[in-house]
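Methods — Computational structure assignment.
A single polypeptide chain was analysed. Its primary sequence is given first, followed by the predicted tertiary structure written as structure tokens.
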Amino acid sequence: MNMYTILIVEDDTKLSGLLHSYIRKYGFDAKEVESFDDVMESFKKTKPHLVLLDVNLPKYDGFYWCRQIRTYSLCPILFISAREHQMDQVMALENGADDYITKPFHYEVVMAKIRSHLRRVYGEYSLGHEEKKTEAGTLVLYPERLLVTYGKTGAELTQKEAILLEALMAKEGRVVSRNQLLDLMWADHHFIDDNTLNVYVSRVRKKLKELGTQMAVETIRGAGYRLSSEAGDSI
């Protein structure tokens, strides 16, 4: 098994230590942030495959550090926080997070989510395998690189944005239900708020618009979403 590294950004030393122990118990490497004055220094030094990030931190909050990490890396970021308000979860996702776990939590659930995100992002990599890509018109998605291109322009995606866009591109012109998307994006979506999927759809729409493509994500009321282009797409 690959030795994946998990960076823990949690100022509760007892909780951080327990997470460290559980992560090591499951065969992963775990590192704890050395200084909350500069989390990015620890991040660049550690080069983690995944980050566990608290919201309430000294000096700068987790939303700030999430944005900073996203300027440098697309690795999965999982928030762990006692803040249960829906808006906190929306803010986490809008700032680049991939998941949000509320405290108190079961450590087995945290580990299951960690393993799930690592599988989705890194599990299919193997030496010499042909790069996977999905095409819809002139739009090309490279899910392993978390990149979508249109002509000579490209946009980086988060892991869940890539999963969402891949599902829509694979069925271009056809409706993909909300439940299908939830099943693909989360191992257990029964605890995912309906608005969470809306946030990801909005983010994908924005990135497609910035690319300049005519391809757009339509909302089909009562059914789901569809990727289509009424005007046709050409470069």
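Note: The helical segments are 13-25, 39-46, 62-70, 86-94, 107-122, 159-170, 178-185, 194-211.
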